[in-house]
Amino acid sequence: KGGLVINAENRQVRLKDQEIDLTAREFDLLYHLASHPGRVYNRAQLLDEVWGYSYEGYEHTVNTHINRLRAKIEDDPTKPTRIQTVWGVGYKFME
Predict the structure, then answer these.
(1) What global pTM score does this model have?
(2) Deepest in the core among 11, 26, 33, 78, taking most CB within 10 A?
């Protein structure tokens, strides 16, 4: 979407022909969300499916990673167009 290219084979992300430097977890989170555009995930689901564990109290970890991702892939992180917050539910990657 909007010049964002995710290459799962080499774990590379490009935005408008610029390589974006992501941590392994940021890549995993982005890839998971982008693989299911439009699907809303709550924090517990993301912890389970991306981090591989469910642990109450660690849901702020998801928020932190979403914020870092937005800072790297959104044109304006305060008005995200790729990773959207679904208030009271969680996050989704736009279709």
Answers:
(1) 0.92
(2) 33
Helix (H) or strand (E) holding 73: helix 59-73
Which amino acid is located at 28 in the chain? D
Task: State the amino acid at position 6 in one-letter form.
Answer: I
Written as six digits, the tokens of 39 are 């699907």
What would the two tokens of residue 1 be? 């979407």
DSSP state of 41: B
| Amino acid making up residue 2 | G
- Cβ contacts of 63-67, under 8 Å, gap ≥ 24: 65/25, 65/26, 65/29, 66/29, 66/91
- Give the residue from 91, 80, 86, 67 showing the smallest Cα distance to 2: 80
Average pLDDT on 84-88 reads 95
